């Protein structure tokens, strides 16, 4: 959707990036995978194969189909969003929306906000068919969703309200800066956007996440104490672990680290607590603590700020040329004209679409670091393999190397399980070796 393309896409991708998610398998699949023979004896690759082959062929077919469908959805989403933005520009809707805003108020900042409200409403409505298919119909087809349409639609309305408020604030500030900043506008636009991202990450766990789910401190001491011990052992000053009711929306197990600048917290969802073994829970927690200790939120903010600066430089080159060429039809003035917002979103969307492999690789690299950190911290390679297998319901297990590099924002199941078995082969025997 254009909204997300414009302002929240990067924010969300960063949030997703820190999330370790997996759907819960049906009751029939609840048997825990049997650990393979000692990888130090048979080799890490062979041990990983035993795990990978523990899934039925139907499970593998469904996992591949769901994940490969996402490749196409990324393309359709880009094409659909671009079409919507072009309709807004080419049909003269955008210019008319700006004129209406100008008739209502003379204050430029309010004009930009009013324009945004109209823009986001029209864009959301025009994108709705694809949103329903990707977010509701398809998720149910693959057994990943638990909400009825009413509940899902309610969450969509909340998201829309957030887009109006947060996007409205961003657009008001962004256009105020664009009106004042002359030739270096693209630098200042990048600063505003990056600051907005930092703000979103900071307030997210405290003010935004609770709009959709209930968060409360984890009470089960048998789960809580080992997690807090693991946290203290790794220098994390945590007194609380949070639990959230993700089962309200989906069947995926999940845990994440969210927040920055003092709002950091580690959250487990109820699906993980119900379905994962204690070893898998600890393995996932080790991974999440890796994100925290390795400062991934700040590193990703920095990486995405670079992506944003280059993006605005691309806009700086492309926007004036396109606006000038289609001036008669689109009625878009300079870059400080809110009526040019669809053009800005169009260029940014195309840029982010082309950059998909780069963004995935930035995120995946951090995820792999967290995997290795988690193995060292939690020392649960088999629990880690179990979690990676749980993830396989929605993430393809065995992609080709290029496929993994281009489309995967987390390591594939094969990479993760091999990494865990290699750790087990190299670490456990060393630990048992007599001291000299
Ligand atoms: Zn992660």
In short:
This protein is 72% helix and 5% strand. With 436 residues, the protein is mainly alpha-helical.
Task: Give a verbal description of the structure.
With 436 residues, this protein is mainly alpha-helical. It has one domain. 72% of the residues lie in helices and 5% in strands. It is built from 18 helices and 5 strands. The chain has a 5-stranded mixed sheet, with helices on both faces. α1 crosses α8, α4 runs antiparallel to α6 and α15 runs parallel beside α18. It is elongated. The protein starts with a helix and ends with a helix. The site of zinc ion has 6 residues, from α11 and α15.
Shape: elongated
Task: Tally the beta strands.
Answer: 5
- Let me know the average pLDDT: 88
Q: What ligands does this structure carry?
A: zinc ion
Structural class: mainly alpha
Taken as a percent bin, the fraction of beta residues is 5-15%
Main sheet: which strands, in order across?
1-4-5-3-2
Secondary-structure element series = HEHHHHHHHEHEEEHHHHHHHHH
Biggest β-sheet: count, sense, barrel? 5 strands, mixed
Q: State the end-to-end CA separation.
A: 62 Å
Total discrete domains? 1
Unreliable stretches (pLDDT < 50, length at least 5) are 1-29
Helix content: over 70%
* CA radius of gyration: 23 Å
Number of helices: 18
């Amino acid at each position: 959707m254009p909204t997300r393309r414009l302002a929240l896409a990067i924010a969300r991708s960063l949030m997703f990036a820190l999330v370790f998610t997996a759907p819960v398998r049906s009751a029939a699949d609840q048997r825990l995978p049997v650990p393979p023979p000692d990888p130090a004896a048979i080799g890490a690759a062979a041990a990983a194969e035993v795990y990978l082959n523990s899934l039925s062929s139907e499970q593998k077919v469904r996992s591949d189909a769901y994940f490969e469908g996402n490749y196409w959805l990324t393309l359709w989403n880009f094409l659909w969003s671009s079409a919507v933005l072009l309709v807004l520009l080419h049909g003269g809707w955008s210019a008319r929306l700006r004129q209406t805003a100008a008739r209502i108020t003379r204050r430029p900042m309010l004009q930009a906000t009013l324009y945004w409200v109209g823009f986001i409403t029209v864009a959301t409505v025009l994108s709705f068919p694809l949103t329903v298919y990707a977010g509701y119909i398809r998720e149910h087809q693959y057994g990943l969703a638990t909400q009825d349409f009413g509940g899902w639609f309610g969450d969509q309305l909340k998201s829309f309200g957030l887009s109006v408020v947060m996007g409205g604030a961003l657009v008001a500030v962004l256009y105020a800066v664009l009106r004042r900043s002359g030739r270096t506008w693209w630098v200042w636009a990048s600063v505003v956007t990056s600051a907005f991202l930092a703000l979103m990450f900071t307030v997210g766990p405290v003010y935004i996440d609770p709009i959709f789910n209930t968060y409360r401190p984890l009470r089960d001491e048998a789960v809580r104490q080992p997690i807090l011990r693991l946290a203290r052992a790794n220098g994390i000053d945590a007194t609380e672990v949070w639990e959230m009711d993700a089962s309200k929306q989906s069947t995926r197990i999940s845990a994440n680290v969210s927040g920055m600048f003092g709002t950091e917290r580690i959250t487990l969802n109820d699906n993980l607590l119900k379905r994962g073994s204690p070893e898998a829970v600890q393995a996932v927690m080790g991974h999440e603590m890796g994100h925290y200790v390795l400062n991934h939120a700040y590193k990703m903010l920095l990486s995405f700020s670079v992506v944003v600066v280059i993006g605005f430089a691309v806009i700086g080159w492309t926007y004036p040329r396109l606006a000038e060429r289609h001036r008669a039809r689109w009625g878009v003035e300079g870059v400080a004209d809110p009526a040019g917002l669809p053009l800005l979103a169009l260029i940014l969307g195309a840029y982010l679409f082309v950059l998909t492999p780069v963004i995935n690789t930035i995120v995946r690299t951090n995820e792999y670091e967290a995997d290795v950190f988690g193995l060292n911290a939690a020392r649960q390679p088999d629990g880690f393999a179990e979690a990676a297998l749980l993830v396989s319901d929605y993430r393809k297990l065995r992609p080709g190397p290029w496929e993994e590099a281009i489309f995967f924002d987390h390591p594939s199941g094969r990479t993760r399980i091999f990494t865990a078995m290699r750790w087990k082969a190299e670490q456990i025997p060393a630990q048992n070796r007599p001291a000299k």
